[in-house]
Specification:
Blueprint (H helix, E strand, L loop, with lengths): L1 H31 L4 H7 L4 E6 L2 E2 L19 H9 L6 H11 L3 E7 L2 E10 L2 E8 L11 H20 L4 E4 L5 E4 L1 H11 L27 E5 L8 E9 L5 E7 L1 H21 L5 E5 L5 E4 L1 H7 L3 H5 L4 H10 L9 H17 L2 E6 L5 E8 L5 E7 L1 H23 L3 E5 L5 E4 L1 H7 L12 H10 L6 H10 L7 E6 L5 E8 L5 E7 L4 H14 L1
Helix pairs in contact: 14-15
Amino acid sequence: MPDTAVIVLLVVVSVAAASCAMILSQWLLRRRGAASAQQFWQALDMPRRYVFREGYLISDPDEDECFIADPEDRAAAWVGLVEGLTPLNEGIPDAMQELRHRGEGFVLIGYLGSDAISVAGRTEGETLCITVATAQEGKARQAIHKGSLDGLQAELKGLRAALDFLPVPMWREGPDAQITWANAAYFRLVRRSTELDGPLVWPIRRLFADQLDPPPDPGSFRRCQLDIPDQQDPSWYDVSMTPEEDGGTLYAARSIDRLVAAETGLRNFVQTLSKTFAHLPIGLAIFDKRRELVLFNPALLTLSTLDPEWLSSRPSLFAFLDQLRERQRMPEPKNYKAWRASLSRLEQAAQDGSYQELWTLPTGQTYRVIGRPHPDGAVAFMFEDISSEVSLTRQFRADLDLYQAVLDEGEAALAVFSKDGQLILSNDAYARLWGTDPREMLGTMGLVEATRQWQEATRPAPVWGDIRAFASQEAERAAWSDDIVMADGRALECRVAPLKGGAMMVSFVRLSKTTEKLERLREVAGGQD
């Protein structure tokens, strides 16, 4: 009984297989016309190629054509071929649609009974090519294990998904400079740049054609721009390439809109600074972290007398200082080698924000030079011509020396106090009278300290309290005088006079030198007799 059941089962399977083969053969015969099935199987041993351009069949169909119902209708041949190949593999319609819209090639295996049929699609320049051939082992072919083929197709699908996931547009160009493949980001960019709503038509537009002729060197970048209708400013990309062994070229375009916006903002900021610094009388020179001149203003040209073209060539800090020395715009060093060695200390001091010097030039001018650190390792030097200020200071000091000499020649001992009671001026007669010279003291002398010193060197008198009270008054002050007597018996006239700004002057004159005081003293002495 078991043997009988097995025999019956084998018969049923054989009948079913024969029926399927007969049905499929009849279907193929209806598709191909009068050619026999045996001729069809023999013909499939040679690959069949269907070449389309923009959906139109441009290749000549074979005499025994079996996959296109009406090969004479070349405009509808693409749709007919999809219908004819779909029974072989259900994935053929989607694969052919991706090939037509995005240029993605494919290889699918279908079956006619137990015979494997290979269906492959790819782009060739401006055309799409569909190849149908038997997948059985032949003289010019090798059999491929189905599991291995499925693994390769799964890997290919995963790689395509990964490339489509990337936001970086990528595309491949053949030796004829026509695009043969592109990822989803490139297709999206094509649609944005052309405002295309319908399906893309091969050959796909080369977005950076003019800007990549000639192409950049391998490993380098070419900055390209692309006008996008839905945005005001163009988009910027860094395009790189790598050659392939078959003569093709693989390109990738990285968006750098943020980088370009940052560079534009920095350039506008520098221009704003340049316009601001253009009206400053102080020369400004900014060196970046590589110590190259990146910014200067017109005042620097006047102070340094350097050529503006040379300054625009971004000279180094050392070259800049060398040129200043040659133009006698800095002090001439006694030892040039030591001076060159000091430049590193100058740079370090400027970087730390502690460099400030006065340069006395051979021409007699005086520059104040200040070094200040800037962000990102930059250093700024400021040059200010203070020749008039130095000249005025020197003249002022000369005038002070002259006035001091005049005061020192007088016989009256003078002391001038400021509004806050500090001794700010005295003469030689004061030092001889009181035995101390406030000009040689480390600190300043106040009015209280001075009157205490005077009081200790004289006989008791109320004048010292009056002087301190006079100094504290702010209004209605008038000059007054009183007589004092030194401890050794010398008679003096103490005169107090107000000065501008709340200051006051105290002078001491010996009465023996004043005729009127002598006569008054005689009168006083005679009255006492």
